[in-house]
Amino acid sequence: MVGLSHYLILASLLFGIGLYGVLSKRSAVAVLMSIELMLNAVNINFIAINRFLQPAQTTGQLFAIFVIVVAAAEVAVGLALILSIYRLRKSVDLNDFNLMKW
Amino acid sequence: MTMTIQNLVFASLGGITVLAALGVVLSKNMVHSALFLVLTFLGVGGIYFNLGAGFLALVQILVYAGAISVLMIFAIMLVMKGEAGGSNPPGPSLGSRLWGIYLAVLLTLGLGASIWFSQWAPGQAAPPGDKVKGLAGLMLGNYVVAFEMAAILLLLAVVGAIILAKGDEK
To answer: Could you report the predicted ipTM of this complex, rounded to two decimals?
Structure first.
């Protein structure tokens, strides 16, 4: 029987993979992709908890929709920032973006 | 019998999702990473269907697998230099990569153990009926301010993205 724990463990696996990508990738686009993985893991949590603990309501699904909206906005702005800094630096390697580091 | 089928569906969807997510972070080719990302989004959409959230699954397929992945692939094409192979290298040093693996495994094990040993309230059966109706009622009822703010946020983000990506007028 597949229960709540299975979905939550699947979500934490996805979150861990995304965390690894964020910490160890060099390309800024790959880091954005990993952030998307982590946001998807959070959405699975919202919907699974909604389904198993409060099946009469849909608040969890509503919050997942808001997460999707914010993620779409974040991807649009993030990719525009990457394009704009690529024009300046001719690179998307995060190690080259040390402009504000001292 | 139905339990077995449900187990099988969950196992195959979860397996596809996790393997595709591993492909996103481990693939050396950026374009392959993007295609694995589409597969991950589709797998997550299937999990939403499995959880009885059909509307969310369709939104996931439309917004993530449709729009966001196309945006990602456009960005990859615009910033890629030369060959696609080796365009998505892992971290520069072994140390930073091991640090990333260590933190990710630690987090996953910690979360997994605490989930596995928790007691959940017994699951209730989902009441039959239209989920979308409840969703719409919440969206235009209790959460109408958040709904309108989300609309404004999307508009501002898209206009800002256009301004940022257009660059200076020379």
So the answer is: 0.92
What would the two tokens of residue B15 be?
A: 């397996």
Q: Exposed, middle or buried: residue A41 (CB in 10 Å: 0-12, 13-18, 19+)?
A: buried
Q: Return the closest-CA partner of residue B56 out of A47, A14, A55.
A: A47
Q: For residues B14 and A11, what is the distance between their CA atoms, to the nearest angstrom?
A: 9
Whether A36 and B90 lie within 8 Å, measured CB to CB = no
Q: How confident is the model at residue A101 (pLDDT cuts 50, 70, 90)?
A: confident
| A55: DSSP letter | T
- DSSP designation for A27: B
Mean pLDDT of chain B: 87
- Are B106 and A12 contacting, i.e. CB atoms less than 8 angstroms apart? no
What CA–CA distance (Å, rounded) separates A41 from A7? 10
Which of A16-20, B3-7, B94-98 shows the highest mean pLDDT? A16-20
User: Which whole number is the average pLDDT over B112-125?
Assistant: 81
Cβ contact A57:A72 at 8 Å:
no
Q: Contact A36/B37 with Cβ under 8 angstroms?
A: yes
Query: Can you tell me whether residue B167 is helix, strand or coil?
Result: coil
> Cβ contact (<8 Å) for A82 and B75?
yes
**Is B120 close to A52, i.e. CB distance below 8 A?**
yes
Give the integer Cα–Cα distance in Å for B54 and B45.
Answer: 9
Q: For chains A and B, what is the number of CB pairs under 8 angstroms?
A: 236
